[in-house]
Structures are given as structure tokens and as C-alpha cells.
């Protein structure tokens, strides 16, 4: 078992790295979802604001009020655009985290398979040694029996 100890240490390290990647992926997913929801809220609010003021302008609206509205809508549009960039950044980060998680899961699986293969090989070697020892004992017993019988048969 001591021959496998280094592999168990590698497996433990790989599992920790995988677990860390899984936690980071989950945090990235939550950040993406929050950014996406905030972006949607901004867009909804902008649409609502625009609809409300357009009906107000139909009733009455001075040039100064229209200019303030347009300036505010421009700033709101910039905020929406900035939020869309943030959503895209968090989506890309989440994707990188997902790829890293997949890579780390593959490493855990590969090390696990290597350990399993080494354990099977060690079991096979032990089985062969036991079989060889059993065969040797049987062979010695057979020779001893034959040697014991040979003098009596003469």
C-alpha cells in the first residue's frame, strides 16, 4: 500500500483543487445571475420610465423638461450598456471557471483510474506470488511423497 501513498496524496490534492474550482464556479454563477438580473431590472425600469414620460409629453412638456428627460435617458442608456458589459464579463468568467472545473474533474478521474489500475496490478502480482507459493508447496509435497514411496517400491 505504501507504493500507492504518493498517488493518494496526488488524488487528495486533485480533489481539493476540484472542490475549490467548484466553489469558484458556483460563486461565478451567482455573480453572473445577479448581474444579469440587475441588467434586466435596469432595462425594465428604462422602458417603464420611457413609457411614463412619453405619455406625459403628449399632455404637455416644455423644452427644458424634454432636454432633462433626454439627458437622463442617455445616462440611463449608458448605465444599461455598462451593465451589459458587466454581464458579458461575468459570463466569460463563469465559462472559464466551468472549463477549469471540468479540467480538474478529469484530473481527479484520471488519478482515480491510475490508483485503481495500480491496485489491480498489485493484487494480480500478489495472486501470482500466492499461486507460485502454493504450486511450490504442492510440488515439494509431491516430490516428498514420491521420494518416500520410491524406497518402498524397490
**Mean of residue pLDDT?**
90
Strand residue percentage: under 5%
**Major beta sheet summary:** none
Number of helices: 2
How far from one another are the termini? 53 Å
The amount of helix comes to over 70%
The count of domains is 1
Topology order in helix (H) and strand (E) letters: HH
Low-confidence stretches: none
Supply the CATH class. Mainly Alpha
Note the main attributes of this structure.
154 residues, mainly alpha, Helix Hairpins, 2 helices, 95% helix
Write up what this structure looks like.
The protein has a single domain (2-153), classed as Orthogonal Bundle (Helix Hairpins), CATH 1.10.287. It is rod-shaped and about 125 Å long. With 154 residues, it is mainly α. The model has no long low-confidence stretch (mean pLDDT 90). It has two helices and no strands. Helix 1 packs antiparallel against helix 2.
Structure described in brief:
The chain is an all-alpha fold and 154 residues long. The protein is built from 2 helices and no strands. It starts with a helix and ends with a helix.
In terms of topology, how is this protein built?
Elements (H helix, E strand, L loop, with lengths): L4 H55 L3 H91 L1
